[in-house]
Amino acid sequence: SGKSLDFGAVSNGFGEHSPLGFGIGSVIVAEIIATMLFVLIILGVTAAGSTTAGFAPLAIGLALTLFHLVMIPISNSSLNPARSIATAVLGGLDALAQLWVFLVAPLVGGLLAGVIYRPLFGGPKG
């Protein structure tokens, strides 16, 4: 059939590989903040004793949708290193060269959420 899919178009990127041309600094900050907020939402709705646990799937799904809608124009939205790896492997050398940002930034965002969740929102002491 001879057709190939252009995974470079859906790979995460910065600079000329960002849908709207955002630079590396903007992309790193945006990915860290979006991932941190997403993980904080997950932690909040799934915390032990949470009165919102029944709505966790809805809250998490809607939050993920919101963050993707915000992040796609910036970087094609990572929030998840596994998603970034898959498209970069199939997206070519440019996508692979920029992949490190989309491994590091979500990990930093997730770690920040883990560190600040309890001081900000409380939880079991001890």
Helix share bin: 55-70%
Radius of gyration: 16 Å
Strand content: under 5%
Number of helices: 4
Main sheet overview: none
Number of strands: 0
Walk me through what this model shows.
The protein has 126 residues and is mainly α. The protein starts with 23 loop residues before the first helix and ends in a 5-residue tail after the last helix. 29% of the residues are buried. The longest helix has 29 residues, at 93-121. The model has no long low-confidence stretch (mean pLDDT 89). The chain contains 4 helices and no strands.
Highlighted features:
about 130 residues; mainly alpha; about 65% helix; about 0% strand; elongated
In terms of topology, how is this protein built?
Elements: H1 24-46, H2 56-75, H3 81-91, H4 93-121
Helix pairs in contact: 1-2, 1-4, 3-4
What is the compact description of this entry?
With 126 residues, the chain is mostly helical. It has helices spanning 24-46, 56-75, 81-91, 93-121. Helix 1 packs across helix 4 (93-121) and helix 3 (81-91) packs antiparallel against helix 4 (93-121).
